[in-house]
Design goal:
Blueprint lengths: L3 E3 L2 E3 L15 H13 L6 H14 L3 E5 L2 H11 L7 E5 L4 H9 L3 E5 L10 H4 L7 E4 L11 H11 L2 E5 L7 E2 L2 E2 L6 E5 L12 E5 L2 H10 L8 H5 L20 H12 L1 H19 L5 E2 L7 E2 L5 E5 L7 H11 L18 H7 L4 H9 E4 L7 H19 L1
Parallel strand pairs: 4-5, 4-6, 6-7, 7-10
Antiparallel strand pairs: 1-2, 3-11, 8-9, 8-13, 10-11, 12-14, 14-15
Helix pairs in contact: 1-9, 2-9, 3-4, 3-7, 10-14, 11-14
Bound molecules: pyridoxal-5'-phosphate.
């Protein structure tokens, strides 16, 4: 289908709204959730345990703790690693507020790092100059599903005795040099929020190599108890429990866990479809002057949670805002990931300290637009997005 231009804007004849994201939930998954709802066990139980074990197997890790969100998992990981007041934690300015909230709620001091312009993640080069004797941890974010340079960050962490809490909200199923994200950090935290690679509605997972750390996180996620509700009320239950330390109510529930089990069974198919859509966007948009399709570092296999396009306003004067206006007028959803942390009114102190030290983050934010990318997109949906992006960019350049 070609594009038509009216009042300086681009139009295609799209009947329905192409949402920025629509989760793919199967009838089998709906039935499985229904079965749990009928079972009489609605909270943390056998299905959560089964889901945790299935995730560990899928990710080829020894330990995986299901939690109610990635946000909760990040907080738990920092707490279980005893990172708190007086400690500095390096994280990207280009992330969702959850990464920062975990640091702030631990009473630690956030230090904002710039991104590598290719991966859009923080790197050893952007983190090293920020190290001080108080630096205790780095929280890299796999931006859009592109794995960060974990080998380089791991070296930095070893040299300076730092912990790494990886925010892998976007990168479930991604690989770095063949190895699945989830291995090799002190803690790796995934999100199963509705838009993510697999979903439990809301939910998350923490993986780690250390058995004691995993046990502490699992306990902190159920108020610091020495057992959980399933152990108390299950058929081998006992009423007595002890609180080992004050914790949080951060665990997942069985209805979400069965949805997750279904999604996990389809994770490879989701990944294949996401990759196919991304490859079509790359092939059909990559030649446009002023348009930068996502770059992939050698050896990296992104999860393609997001498709992060850049529009250079020096070449395309309408910039990304012009493109977003055209996408919206054509009933195509889009987004921007992310408004850098220090741009928010709550964090003016961070703007004062770091605002002039983040040139790649600022450049990226000025150019960024995220296109719809999800497994249930049809080939026609992809064609529509390509048609509008091409026509909008070409119209803006004339
Ligand atoms: C980079 C990043 N970290 C953390 C989160 C928080 O995930 P959740 O909604 O599971 O808490 C998100 C959510 O979108 C995210 O994009």
């Amino acid at each position: 289908m070609g594009a038509d231009r009216r009042e300086g804007r681009v139009f295609i004849e799209r009947q329905d709204h192409l949402r920025f994201f629509r989760p793919d939930v199967s009838e089998e998954e709906i039935a499985a959730v229904g079965e749990v709802l009928r079972s009489g066990w609605l909270t943390y139980g056998a299905k959560v345990h089964e889901f945790g074990q299935a995730c560990a197997k899928y990710l080829e890790v020894d330990r995986a703790v299901p939690v109610c969100s990635c946000t909760a998992g990040l907080h738990l990981a920092l707490e279980a690693l005893d990172i708190g007041p007086g400690d500095e934690v390096i994280l990207p300015a280009l992330t969702f507020v959850a990464t920062l909230s975990a640091v702030l709620h631990r009473g630690a001091t956030p230090v904002l790092a710039d991104i590598d312009p290719v991966s859009l993640c923080i790197s050893p080069a952007t983190c090293a100059p920020l190290l001080t004797p108080r630096t205790r941890a780095i929280m890299p974010v796999d931006m859009g599903g592109h794995p960060c340079d974990m080998a380089g960050l791991g070296d930095l962490a070893r040299q300076h005795d730092l912990r790494i809490v990886r925010d892998a909200a976007h990168s479930f199923g991604a690989r770095e040099h063949g190895r699945l994200v989830g291995q090799g950090c002190d803690a790796t935290v995934f999100s199963f929020y509705a838009t993510k690679c697999i979903t439990t509605g809301d939910g998350g997972l923490v993986t780690c190599d250390d058995a004691a750390l995993a046990a502490r996180m699992a306990s902190l996620a159920v108020h610091g108890m020495d057992g959980d509700a399933w152990q108390r009320y299950g058929d081998k239950g006992r009423w007595y429990y002890e609180i080992l330390e004050p914790g949080w109510k951060y665990h997942l529930g069985d209805p979400a866990a069965v949805l997750g089990l279904g999604q996990l069974g389809r994770a490879d198919d989701f990944m294949a479809r996401r990759t196919a859509v991304a490859e079509r966007f790359n092939a059909e948009l990559g030649d446009l002057p002023g348009v930068q399709v996502p770059q992939v570092l050698p050896g990296m296999t992104p999860a393609w949670h997001l498709y992060l396009l850049r529009i250079d306003p020096r070449v395309v004067p309408g910039g990304r805002d012009g493109l977003i206006a055209d996408l919206t007028a054509n009933r195509i959803g889009s987004s921007v990931h992310f408004i850098p942390l220090h741009h928010h009114p709550a964090f003016t102190d961070l703007a004062a300290t770091f605002g002039d030290k983040l040139p790649e983050t600022e450049r990226y934010f000025a150019e960024a637009v995220s296109l719809p990318l999800f497994p249930a997109m049809t080939d026609q949906d992809v064609t529509d997005v390509v048609t509008v992006v091409r026509a909008s960019v070409e119209a803006s350049r004339k």
